[in-house]
Amino acid sequence: MSQLPKQPAEVSVPTSADVARLAGVSRATVSYVLNNNVTVRISEPTRRRVREAALQLAYVPHAAARSLRAGHSRMVLLPSGHIPAGPLHQYFFEELQSGLRRLDYTVVQYGSVGLTADEAATAWAELRPVAVVVPPGIALTPHGTGILTRSGAKAVITLGPGPVAGAHGLVMDQRQVGASAVEHLLARGRRHIGVVMPQEPGRALFSEPRLIGARRVAEPAGARVCPLPLRYEEESAHQLAARWPELGLDAVFAYNDEYAMLLMRALQDAGVTVPADTAVIGADDSLIGRLLRPRLSTVRMELAMPQPLAETIDRMVQHPGGPPVHQDLLRTSAVHRESS
Questions:
Q1: Strands 192-198 and 155-160
Q2: Who contacts 17 (Cβ-Cβ below 8 Å, separation ≥6)?
Q3: Which of 82, 115, 167, 227 is the most buried (most CB within 10 A)?
Q4: Which of 124, 204, 160 is nearest to 326 (CA)?
Q5: What is the DSSP letter of 162?
Q6: What is the pLDDT of residues 276-298, one digit of tens each?
Q7: Which residues pair with 108 in a beta bridge?
Q8: Across-strand partners of 109?
Q9: What does the pLDDT look like over 299-329, one tens digit per residue?
Q10: 256 phi and psi, to 5 degrees?
């Protein structure tokens, strides 16, 4: 007869009482120290003794219990999905997460692929976050905002091309990117301008407003704008370059630096001289673009925030109930290099 494998003995989970006994202090003192409560005066030697005891026992505070005592969680939910983000977005979210951690918030990323906008909002609400930061490419509706606020979220913030009713909006108007690129090309005498429209999923959220911004600047100057569908593949770039003579273009805004580098190489392979025959400009101001020959002109993007977003979220959590705040964050400027 076979025997069931021997089950391991139940592991004893250390408690704050265990930490208090080892450190020789009260449980309240343990709570004050490990929750970084600065309103209660505790000597540095005592704080150090409590932290050393917690480390020795591998004690971890219970997040749910702490949330019950505080009346809300310290969780900031950051939904994730298929977000075609560039260096600016990556830097922004790294700064956001480190800033929130310094303020004693826990940032939780939540996969939302496959959910409708309202299904996603309901799933986020189940976790009872104190704040939700919705990045570009993740859908949020006014109904979803209501679900989150009724579940206890004190701040719902969207990042993207436009605001959502009922939520705070940090707007990154992508039209400015296309406008800056075309203004740069017009200043160099170009009047027949292609605008690359990536065919990869999720890019339209950024590429369509950039095309609108390009047209807004080109039309008053009597310039022609020609949308150019392009997949991020060498074959697609070579096919587009082969059609270049019939397109009659003397410049191209290639969506970002990656697509600019892809297309510029295909144009050069097809015998098109950059910038003599066609000027090329990208966006993102990536390092590798500066290493190309010719060096790649680009649109530099920066975020102009009056204070770090983590501090803004903390203020919204501490003082909820105000009217939605909408701020335009994106600042753009063209950087002239050899390709234009």
A1: unpaired
A2: 27
A3: 167
A4: 160
A5: S
A6: 999 999 999 999 999 999 999 99
A7: 77
A8: 78
A9: 999 888 777 888 888 988 888 877 888 888 8
A10: -150, 180
DSSP 8-class letter at 230: E
- Per the CB < 8 A criterion, the answer to whether 96 and 86 are in contact is no
The pair of structure tokens assigned to 217 is 């600047």
For 85-141, give the DSSP string. --HHHHHHHHHHHHHHHHTT-EEEEEE-TT--HHHHHHHHHHT--SEEEE-TTS---
Q: What pTM, to 2 d.p., does this model score?
A: 0.76
Q: With residue 174 as reference, give the H or E element that holds it.
A: none
Is residue 340 within 8 A of residue 275, CB to CB? The reply is: yes
The length of the chain in residues reads 340
Q: Strand order of the sheet with strand 106-111?
A: 106-111, 75-80, 131-134, 155-160, 168-171, 326-328
Q: How far is Cα 151 from Cα 153, in angstroms, rounded to an integer?
A: 6
Here the tokens at position 265 are 């190489």
80 and 110 in contact (C-beta within 8 Å)? yes
* Residue 289 Cα distances to 42, 258, 264, 283, angstroms: 54, 8, 11, 10
Q: Kindly write down the DSSP assignment for every residue of 274-305, as one continuous string.
A: TTTT-EEE-SS--HHHHHSSSPPBEEEEEE--
In the structure encoding, which two tokens stand for residue 102, read together?
Answer: 């310094």
DSSP for 40-94, please give it: S---HHHHHHHHHHHHHHT----HHHHHHHHTS--EEEEEE------HHHHHHHH
Its sign, for the CA torsion 305, 302, 166, 63, is negative
